[in-house]
Amino acid sequence: MLKSLKTIIYVLFVFGLNACQPTQSATSTIDAKNFDSFWIWGEIQSAPYLSKAKELYILQGEIRYSKQRRSSILTPQGVSILKLPHQKIWLVFRTHHLDWNEQNYQAVFKRLEHWNNHGNQVQGIQIDFDSRTNNLKEYALFLEKLRKELPAHYQLSITGLLDWTNFKDQNTLNILKNNIDELVIQTYQGTNTIPNYPEYLKHVSAMQLPYKIGFVQHGLRQNNANDFDDPNFKGYVVFLVRSKT
Known about the structure:
- This is DUF3142 domain-containing protein.
- Residues 1-19 form the signal peptide.
- InterPro entries: DUF3142, GH.
- Keywords: Signal.
- There is one protein chain.
- Helix content is 28%, strand content 29%.
- Helix 4 packs parallel to helix 5.
- By secondary structure, the chain is α/β, with parallel strands linked by helices.
- Strand 9 (188-189) and strand 10 form a beta hairpin.
- The longest helix has 19 residues, at 2-20.
- It has one domain (27-239): TIM Barrel (Alpha-Beta Barrel).
- It has helices at residues 2-20, 48-51, 102-117, 136-149, 170-179, 197-201, and strands spanning 27-29, 37-40, 55-66, 71-76, 88-95, 121-128, 155-160, 182-186, 188-189, 192-193, 211-216, 220-222, 233-239.
């Protein structure tokens, strides 16, 4: 009886001790200084973490169909050409359709050369297109054509939506695998984190594509979903916002 009483007291003591320990918060705020790869969508105020960045994804324009001109037009956007020799540079082009004309391709490629001629480590281009999941085959075929047009020494990156992780058509996934160098999955919409993004990321490895995880600055990060034991996982990219520094 005495031994049993001691056991009960010990268990209660350990339970009480653990209850007093501080618990790690389920979420944390995305702090740019803890990362080294960023999207720059406009004039972002200089910060120490930018000078230490290893990789920058810089918006350069959007492609959309102009009813007035009856043609697909590339409209320049984002920052002008800079000399950033210490960072790897990706040029980002937002497209609203997949029916590019020859002028669109040449305008993108000229922009690449201009940045390259300024002494930058230009990795390639990133296409930002919000394809519906059931239209991914059409998008994959567009990327296959773009890869053939793109000079071979440049890489091809794309952004992706969380819902794509549910896509299972292997033929389409093979087209993507053979033509893109990375997929960056966005865990946010606008400047807000999608609350259940970890549920989608559980399926991303099944796509068998090289991928990165995209966060938004000042957004939320689920601390129980930070570890990616996957050879296809290549790191994080943070979308910088201008409302806060």
